[in-house]
Write a structure and sequence with these properties.
Shape: elongated
Radius of gyration: 24 Å
Number of strands: 11
Distance between the termini: 10 Å
């Protein structure tokens, strides 16, 4: 039933419309830092378009710290590096003879390293707002456009994309995606090994017990710490805060998917009796999912109301067709997304002839869907990006010349059919 209702020309026209609009925004507005006037300007451009398809449009503001999420890489790398150099000066330069003097170098590294690893896990693994209060604030803005149900609203599906763009990740830009794994692996693994060795060495030194194993561990610790210095240098240079990605693929493709969800329904004259369709354009995804977190907090009761079944389908980068997947795990695999919604997306894809859609895991980083899932709101992510990662990911290569209309079209077919299947209404 759903497939017969979908007009291929409407989808094809929306793809061309999206490519033109993305190109316009990248040329006219440029990169869009989280909470910036450029992000709001891009939303305003799309608001004028949405006025043609939506029954209601409004904005919701919230406060965030754009640099807090990733600037920890500068702080923790500097702190760990300084602790290693300071401990080295004590051990090899000052050469204290007391037990405390022998223990101090290892204790110093252990303490700083463990705190730094905790901050890294809290910020990047679990997306906690640990450091936001220490950074300058900006006003984020979520834009919500609603295509209301004709009658009583019993279901709601939100198609969401984020408007903001990322600070450039140097490892990906200079290594074209191939250095990301080795460089970040070096930073993380050496820091963990240093933490284990320094903690063990500090305990052994403080105990005063002598053994060949203890001597081996304490002797081996500092050569490993020297490798950690290299890892910390790589971590320190990871983010280039002076350059922002143009964000054509990540994530104007997802943003325009949300806009075109309403556009395509309007052009096909599809308005459901009891299902509300929402286009949501969040800000602050690249600042740690701040926009989605703010929306989930402000609307928790509404989005979890048992009387109105609500789901959120986040669309984040529609580019690499071979990597088009529905994500049922997020936030480096620590958050489970809604399996029922994921199944609907897969079934919708199969009905449109795309039966190779797989379940996938956001194994490094996160999408807005994780913020909703953490709040108990049903959510999933549809994305098509090389997880290697792609050479355009989070850097200046992500411009309109890298758009892939075929992937956008496939994504739109799946999204439109997902909306129809979720609504479950025959509105001939």
């Amino acid at each position: 039933m759903a497939v017969k209702r979908i007009d291929d020309k409407v989808i094809s026209d929306s793809v061309k419309y999206s490519v033109d609009k993305i190109t316009e925004i990248v040329k006219k507005v440029g990169p869009r830092e989280s909470g910036s006037k450029e992000a709001k300007e891009a939303q305003k451009i799309l608001e004028k378009e949405l006025e043609k398809f939506a029954d209601e449009i409004h904005y919701e503001s919230y406060e965030m710290a754009p640099k807090a999420f990733l600037h920890f890489t500068k702080g923790v790398s500097t702190a760990v590096g300084a602790s290693i150099l300071g401990a080295g000066a004590i051990k090899y330069g000052l050469k204290p003879k007391s037990k405390a003097g022998k223990t101090l170098p290892h204790a110093l590294i252990a303490g700083v390293d463990l705190v730094s690893l905790g901050i890294t896990a809290g910020e990047f693994l679990f997306y906690r707002e640990l450091l936001d209060k220490f950074y300058p604030k900006a006003d984020g803005s979520n834009m919500i456009a609603v295509r209301k149900a004709k009658g009583e609203t019993k279901k709601r599906i939100i198609i969401s994309g984020h408007i903001d763009t990322a600070y450039e990740w140097r490892h990906i830009y200079y290594g074209k995606g191939k250095l990301m794994g080795p460089f970040m692996g070096t930073s993380i693994v050496t820091a963990i090994i240093s933490a284990v060795l320094s903690s063990t060495s500090a305990v052994l030194s403080a105990s005063g017990k002598k053994s060949k194993i203890a001597d081996f561990i304490t002797d081996a610790a500092f050569p490993v710490h020297a490798l950690t210095l290299i890892g910390m240098f790589l971590l320190n240079r990871f983010i280039n805060f002076s350059i922002l990605s143009p964000g054509a693929n990540d994530n104007l493709t997802g943003t325009l998917a949300a806009v075109c969800a309403l556009k395509m329904l309007d052009e096909m004259d599809l308005k459901f009796e009891n299902t509300e369709v929402v286009c949501m354009i969040t800000d602050g995804e690249e600042a740690g999912l701040r926009g989605a977190k703010a929306y989930a907090k402000a609307h928790h009761d509404e989005l979890t109301d048992p009387n109105v079944e609500t789901v959120v389908l986040c669309v984040d980068t529609l580019t690499d067709l071979k990597d088009l997947n529905v994500y049922n795990k997020d936030m480096t695999g620590t958050v489970k997304l809604d399996q029922e919604l994921c199944s609907i997306v897969r079934e919708a894809a199969a009905e449109m002839g795309h039966d190779n859609l797989k379940y996938a895991n956001v194994f490094f980083g996160s999408s807005d869907a994780a913020a909703y899932a953490q709040a108990g709101i049903r959510a999933a992510t549809l994305a098509a990006m090389d997880p290697a990662p792609a050479d355009y990911y989070h850097n200046r290569r992500d411009s309109y010349d890298r758009l892939v209309p075929e992937t956008i079209k496939t994504g739109y077919e799946i999204i439109l059919n997902t909306i129809i299947k979720f609504a479950g209404e025959d509105n001939d």
